[in-house]
UniProtKB/TrEMBL annotation:
Entry superkingdom: Bacteria
Keyword Protein transport recorded: no
Parts of the chain that traverse the membrane: 12-35, 41-61, 73-91, 97-119, 131-149, 155-176, 188-207, 219-241, 248-266, 272-291
Record-given protein name: Drug/metabolite transporter (DMT)-like permease/proteasome lid subunit RPN8/RPN11
Membrane topology: Multi-pass membrane protein
Length: 462
């Protein structure tokens, strides 16, 4: 008898990864069928309206709020217009004049545009390998467009609108990353998608009096596919994988789905690709992949030692000894250690703990922690000490480090065992996707286990 699927999670992960690539790869053919008969405004709007009930149901099932807070209303309007309404309208308009395969290639520039735009928006630095990848990708794209498309104003504008959609998506993605970190992913997508659907559908009906004639069997089936499969299931599958796979692995979906789109375009639309066309396409996709891999390969060569280094560990021990009998706290980047201020004693109105039994980062430290993930030197480790209590990750630590089965920050945690004599050692804890919690992944020195007679135990679980 075969082993149950749940005991082999990689089977589900690999299978869903393939399904998402197929869904994203066939989306472009679905758009082509829809806009052949329906006006672009109406086709985009109906797609979102069809997907909305599924996302609303998921919000209800997961008990996630649908509405944005008052402080995020402007942000919600931005997502509605710049992530959904305008880019997808541009895609639908452009694909009236461009094959589905070339549309997918053009839109996959999102990956490389994110790399370029992250410089002014997030303050990141491009490596030499990334610069080469950007130049090669866009040079090959220009050559490919000139070869495949007839030299005409109409086809040229089709490519421009698709690249415009890719640019807006890239900008919106980085804006969301920078300003929407506190908004749940379902909240982020559900209401803006619904609002974009309503606006586009109404605009489509008002601007084209003959729109009803476009509801052919082909257009209806294509729109249902785009709404139920591409927008809803594709979205759910992608974000399920995003919680379990690295960003690099997920970025390769943008390399794979254009290949799928090209194959379907050749089979269904009878698009002819010459050997040179295929070479240029794979050169573009290879350059995209290189922009993702090159900085990480360079980082491995430049910084093979995972924090904390021996020097950093000595600094952490010294911080714990200075703070004793209070808890110290801070975080570690590859570039160094940030010793933070424990302000829990200033939070007595919301916490019954003191600095000897807990820690809270100051607002300035929290801001630096959050912003670090937008740059090229992110925090990789959060640390705190347990005075006279041993090195363990308590239920209280788990409660603050994990939300809705996912880590609050994509970091490891280090707990330092310190007494009045000295810091005895530390234990490292890494998030386990299988268990949905942090588990021990390593130890330094000779840390003690949880001390049964510690002050922390007399006060209850830390």
């Amino acid at each position: 008898m075969s082993e149950p699927l749940r005991s082999r999670p990689w089977v589900a992960i690999v299978g869903l990864y393939v399904v998402v690539c197929l869904i994203w790869g066939t989306t472009w053919l679905g758009i082509k069928f829809a806009v052949t008969d329906l006006p672009p405004l109406l086709a985009a709007g109906l797609r979102f309206l069809i997907a909305t009930p599924i996302l609303l149901g998921l919000c209800w099932f997961r008990r996630v709020p649908v509405l944005f807070t008052r402080a995020h209303l402007g942000f919600a309007a931005f997502v509605t217009l710049c992530y959904f309404a305008i880019p997808y309208l541009l895609l639908n308009v452009g694909e009236q004049y461009v094959s589905s395969g070339l549309t997918a290639i053009c839109f996959s520039t999102v990956t490389i545009l994110i790399v370029v735009l992250s410089v002014p928006m997030l303050g990141t630095r491009l490596t030499a390998g990334q610069v080469v990848g950007v130049v090669v990708a866009f040079s090959a794209l220009v050559l490919l467009v000139l070869r495949i498309q007839d030299v005409s104003v109409t086809n040229g504008w089709g490519v421009v609108t698709i690249l415009g959609a890719a640019f807006m998506h890239s900008y919106a993605y980085l804006y969301i990353k920078k300003h929407g970190g506190q908004v749940h992913v379902l909240t982020l997508n559900t209401l803006p998608l619904a609002a974009a659907g309503v606006m586009l559908t109404i605009a489509g009906l008002l601007t084209d009096s003959g729109a009803s004639a476009g509801f052919t069997t082909r257009a209806v089936l294509a729109t249902l596919y785009l709404g139920l499969v591409a927008s809803a299931l594709g979205f759910l599958g992608y974000f399920w994988l995003l919680q379990r796979l690295s960003a690099v692995t997920m970025s390769f979906i943008f390399v794979i789905f254009p290949v799928v789109a090209m194959l379907f375009s050749a089979a269904v639309e009878q698009t002819v690709f010459t050997p040179l066309d295929i070479l240029l396409m794979f050169l573009i996709l290879g350059a995209f992949a290189w922009t993702q891999l090159s900085p990480r390969l360079g980082a491995r060569r430049a910084a093979p030692e995972e924090p904390p280094t021996p020097a950093q560990l000595r600094q952490l021990y010294a911080a714990a000894e200075r703070a004793y009998p209070a808890e110290c706290c801070g975080f570690v980047r590859r570039s160094g250690v940030r010793e933070c201020v424990n302000v829990i004693d200033e939070q007595q109105s919301v916490s019954d703990r003191t600095a000897t039994t807990g820690y809270v980062f100051s607002p300035a430290d929290l801001l630096e922690l959050s912003r670090s993930f937008d740059g090229d030197d992110p925090v990789v480790l959060i640390y705190h000490s347990h005075p006279d209590a041993g090195a363990y990750f308590s239920d209280e630590d788990q409660r603050h480090a994990v939300f809705d089965g996912l880590p609050v920050y994509p970091v490891d945690h280090l707990v330092i065992d310190v007494t009045a004599e000295r810091a005895k050692g530390a234990r490292r804890f890494r998030f386990s996707e299988a268990e949905g919690r942090y588990v021990e992944s390593g130890a330094y020195g000779e840390p003690r286990p949880r001390q049964a007679q510690s002050v922390a135990d007399r006060l209850g679980d830390r």
